[in-house]
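ARCHIVE RECORD
Type: protein–small molecule complex
Small molecule: glutamine
Source of inputs: curated submission
Record status: active
Notes field left blank by submitter.
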Amino acid sequence: DLPPVPEAVAAGERPTLRVAALYPELLNIYADRGNLLMLERRCAWRGIGFALTRTTIGDELDPDGHDLLYLGGGQDRDQRLCAEDLVSTKRDAVHAHAARGGAVLAVCGGYQLLGHRYALDATTALPGVGLLDLHTERGEGRLIGNVAIEVELPGAGDPGERRVLAGFENHGGRTILADAQPPLGRVLSGHGNTGASGAEGARRGNVIGTYLHGPLLPKNAWFADWLIATALELPPGSLAPLDDALEDAAHAGARRAAGV
Ligand code: GLN
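STRUCTURE (tokenized, with ligand):
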């Protein structure tokens, strides 16, 4: 059974993690909705509120209204529907959100749309919002399998400590980082951004893009907590600990699957 939601939260008292899910009905491949559920539960169990706004095609995005923007993965054809709208109606708000330190988590198809473009073939490219300095090109065949990476995030563990994120990837796109764009992490096992660069994902401040599904957060509870704390501008170690027996087992299983 799930622990009950504390009364103060049910009564709408703060703090509240305000999340905007972008195009949730289109960008949700591989049960990426599990990432949002994970955030909601871990907030609720701690007495932190959770407010989810679904923002889709045609909707305005409030640049000051959210602590975290979430974009999931998608098929090329669904990304095509989102890309034009993202660039034409939400680009300024996404940039303003990030510029004031707001957090962004974008997985796979969503990650690709945070770059400058996603080239589907020699003549067709989907536009991106350019929040991360990278571009993606469709390659020969798909990069599929279990994946583990090591990452260093501010406040996650001791200074300089590298921690592991484990998940599953399935993408046709190869993502090329600009020289000045740091990856999210280093591939320990699996393909990552291109299958050859050894780099996985990208990070600029609190903006994170990654190819890791899983869903990512249920298999990496420590990262879910880092995200919650960062989005709420709390020290990452300051969240109340939870009983993570199931989550730890899920993390260990994902690492085992990736051979790490
Ligand atoms: N359609 C994109 C690709 O194939 C993203 C896939 C995904 O989100 N899993 O690269």
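CURATOR ANNOTATION: Helices lie at 7-10, 33-44, 76-99, 109-113, 216-219, 221-231, 245-258.
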